[in-house]
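Supplementary Note 3. Input sequence used for the single-chain structure prediction.
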Amino acid sequence: MPGIASVAEAFEEFVDERLARPEQVARVKRIAEAGHGFEGWLKFEFYVWLIEKHQLAPGPKRDVGMEYSAAIDHRRFKGDIVSKRCDLWVRDADSKREGFHYIELKAPFFEWNRGKVLDSAGKDFGFMSKLCAGWERAVTGSAIVFGVGFNDEKWAEAREIIRRSAGVQAGAPPTGEGVIDQAIRWDVWTTSYPR
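The predicted structure, written as discrete structure tokens, is reproduced below.
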């Protein structure tokens, strides 16, 4: 069955194939200048790459899609939110599990409101960690955080904001990480659901 085995591995491969070449780095920086529209561009590029690379059928009740409201497990979350809209969902490659990876993307820039965006990324990961796994057939829930303009020190601070907002232990590492041209950094934060 077509799908992916790991969000972190798939995103790293996507970055290596689509974004890390010198001409693409310049393009990414130009697109990032557009500001918050950058996140939408990144989501669409990753979506198209997933379809092409893994021969996935797009659309409802298929292999991959965008914008899905996933149910929250209220045994793990005490609040009035019943679902969380996620940016992408992708079928798991293991046909024995017959499940899905749910993904949120955030693209913070090193600017005045970065704390708000990083806090939102952490909260998104928190929700992706509290999905109603059985109902949604969730294999994993992930947040991909793609930062532009951060140096090593500021990215370390950004990670702590994400951890704190997600309720993750201080210093816990992301599932996947990478650097493009020193100015562009990304992390994938993933929760795996037992099957």
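The mean pLDDT is 88. The two ends are 18 Å apart (CA to CA).
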